[in-house]
């Protein structure tokens, strides 16, 4: 794919360009290495755009590799979803999909190499004892009493661990580095743990599984990755990343570069907490349109181009820029849909209007542009009949002076049609308005009425030809900017009880042909997308992607 705009410079792109021009690197190879223990979210989108985009812009290649070192938390469904998300965003990985588990044999051989070089040992300390011996940020650790086992004993114990002779937690393999290091990651980190779990790629072959730190850099080296680009929380792990590369006979030595992760307000990007929302059925799965997952945003109606544009807007830096305003994301999607979404009329809260001076069998069909600025979109046929629906919000019985929509004795224009005047209000026994009786000024089609000014224009749908729709109005899932900031308050306490509202709406006839993921601007209402999973020709379901108001554009104008 080709990006829509010239990418803005950033420190990583500049650094890689200088290395290529200086001859240190001939061809850049990056990788996107998710753990298959959940769905990808908007933070991953930033990493995807960076890694794939950088390789594309520099004439290199980007691998998709699953760092699958913990089979207890991994599933094939996550692997399939991640591949689909990357492809949907518009990127293609080089070669076949890779798995860290492809390298388990080599990693085991390298673990044996470290033992022979007196750089690793099997430890019998319990997990609690290992934490106690490791020390603190201000106090050095203490060596394990098993640290000086012979290479022969360690090799034998490691092999028996591999064969499943020991229980989980009974033994681990640790690197022998420096228990007094100020960097706790270098205080004899764990290389292998015993796990009696079947693996989605290797089956029951292994009873031990390598740690992420031991797997990650060596997998990069095997694949010829030149630049391991990751977020800043891995900066303290870089000395360990380099220690492994320097003490093992790896074929290449990639470089690790860190950048600031994305923190979006009113949003969680912790996989553990997102999984909790799914497991406790607070949301309808990982792709619930309220979720910050890529699949959730896709289902809500976001476009790949808009997400890529957003990632370009926020940029790539080493400095933690704090919270990014979610209005930037909605601005990116709104801008894309403004240019590319066809128009339609839909009444979310129907209120019947009877046009009293229109005959019972009257049917007048207007040909209306699919998009006001796009000649390439087909026109819509919008029928006017004696009875139409308008939105309840477009009528007020006791309207203030600046209410320019419908009220008793006041006029308004039906969009693309005539000016009408409200002559009578019909109510039920409870005093609720159930119907309006209005008259049509037939001399106002395409022109203003003589001698009077009508400021209001409202949308409408024919009662006879309207299509019933289920419309889901989504809002932020959380009511506070940082729902997990206060460690003394459960983040679930900040859930927005009005994050989903369902309307039984009526849409114009053209919407009957809307297929899954079809996007529209419902005029005067917002942008909507036909739900890719539950919408059918017999039961059309539309999700609100974003409203029409663009707060971020106003912020930019003020700036």
From TrEMBL:
One of its Pfam families is tRNA-synt_1c_C2
Q: Where is this motif: 'KMSKS' region?
A: 268-272
* Source organism superkingdom: Bacteria
Give the transmembrane ranges: none
- Chief subcellular site? cytoplasm
Residue numbers binding L-glutamine: 67, 212
The positions making up the signal sequence are none
What does the record give under GO molecular function? ligase activity
In this chain the Glutamyl/glutaminyl-tRNA synthetase class Ib catalytic domain maps to 27-328
Please report the stretch or stretches of sequence annotated as the Glutamyl/glutaminyl-tRNA synthetase class Ib anti-codon binding domain. Answer: 341-441
Q: Does the keyword NADP apply?
A: no
Q: Which residues bind ATP?
A: 35-37, 41-47, 231, 261-262
What subcellular compartments does it reside in? Cytoplasm
* Family indicated by similarity: Belongs to the class-I aminoacyl-tRNA synthetase family.
Q: How does it assemble?
A: Monomer.
Task: Please give the name of this protein.
Answer: Glutamine--tRNA ligase
Q: In which organism is this protein found?
A: Vreelandella janggokensis
Lineage summary: Bacteria, Pseudomonadati, Pseudomonadota, Gammaproteobacteria, Oceanospirillales
């Amino acid at each position: 794919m080709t990006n829509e705009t010239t990418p803005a410079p950033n420190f990583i792109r500049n650094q890689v360009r200088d290395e290529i021009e200086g001859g240190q690197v001939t061809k850049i190879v990056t990788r996107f290495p998710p753990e298959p223990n959940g769905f990808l979210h908007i933070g991953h989108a930033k990493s995807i755009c960076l890694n794939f985009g950088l390789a594309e812009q520099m004439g290199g290649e980007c691998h998709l590799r699953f760092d699958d070192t913990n089979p207890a938390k991994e599933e094939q469904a996550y692997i399939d979803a991640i591949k689909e998300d990357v492809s949907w965003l518009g990127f293609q990985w080089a070669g076949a999909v890779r798995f860290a588990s492809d390298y388990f044999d080599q990693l085991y051989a390298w673990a044996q190499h470290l033992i022979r070089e007196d750089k690793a040992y099997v430890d019998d300390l319990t997990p609690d004892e290992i934490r106690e011996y490791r020390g603190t940020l201000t106090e050095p650790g203490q060596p394990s009493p098993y640290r000086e086992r012979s290479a022969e004993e360690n090799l034998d114990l490691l092999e028996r661990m591999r064969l499943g002779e020991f229980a989980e937690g009974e033994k681990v393999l640790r690197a022998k580095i420096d228990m007094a290091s100020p960097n706790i990651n270098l205080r004899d980190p764990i290389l292998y743990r015993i796990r009696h779990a079947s693996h989605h790629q290797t089956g029951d072959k292994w009873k031990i599984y390598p740690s992420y730190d031991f797997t990650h850099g060596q997998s990069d080296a095997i694949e010829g990755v030149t630049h391991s680009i990751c977020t800043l929380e891995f900066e303290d792990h870089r000395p360990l990343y380099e220690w492994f590369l320097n003490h093992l006979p790896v074929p290449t030595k990639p470089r690790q570069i860190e950048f600031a992760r994305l923190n979006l307000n009113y949003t969680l990007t912790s996989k553990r907490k997102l999984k909790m929302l799914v497991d406790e059925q607070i949301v309808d799965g990982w792709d619930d349109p309220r979720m910050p997952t890529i699949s959730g945003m896709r289902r809500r109606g976001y476009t790949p181009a808009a997400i890529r544009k957003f990632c370009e807007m926020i940029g790539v830096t080493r400095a933690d820029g704090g919270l990014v305003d979610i209005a930037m994301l909605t601005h990116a999607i709104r801008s894309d849909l403004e240019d590319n979404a066809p128009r339609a009329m839909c009444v979310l809260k129907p209120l019947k209007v009877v046009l009293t001076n229109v005959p019972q069998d009257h049917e007048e069909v207007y040909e209306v542009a699919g998009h006001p600025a796009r000649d390439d979109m087909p026109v819509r046929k919008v029928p006017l009949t004696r009875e139409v629906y308008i939105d309840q919000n477009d009528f007020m019985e006791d309207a203030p002076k600046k209410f320019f929509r419908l009220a008793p004795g006041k006029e308004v224009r039906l969009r693309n049609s005539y000016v009408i005047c409200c002559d009578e209000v019909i109510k039920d026994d409870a005093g609720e308005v159930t119907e309006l009786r209005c008259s049509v000024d037939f001399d106002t089609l395409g022109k203003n009425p003589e001698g009077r000014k009508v400021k209001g224009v409202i949308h409408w749908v024919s009662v006879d030809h309207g299509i019933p729709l289920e419309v889901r109005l989504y809002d932020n899932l959380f009511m506070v900017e940082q729902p997990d900031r206060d460690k003394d308050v459960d983040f679930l306490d900040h859930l927005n009880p009005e994050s989903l509202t369902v309307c039984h709406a009526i849409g114009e006839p053209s919407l009957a042909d809307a297929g899954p993921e079809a996007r529209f601007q419902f005029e005067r209402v917002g942008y909507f997308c036909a739900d890719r999973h539950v919408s059918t020709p017999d039961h059309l379901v539309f999700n609100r992607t974003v409203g029409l108001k663009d707060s971020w554009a106003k912020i930019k104008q003020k700036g």
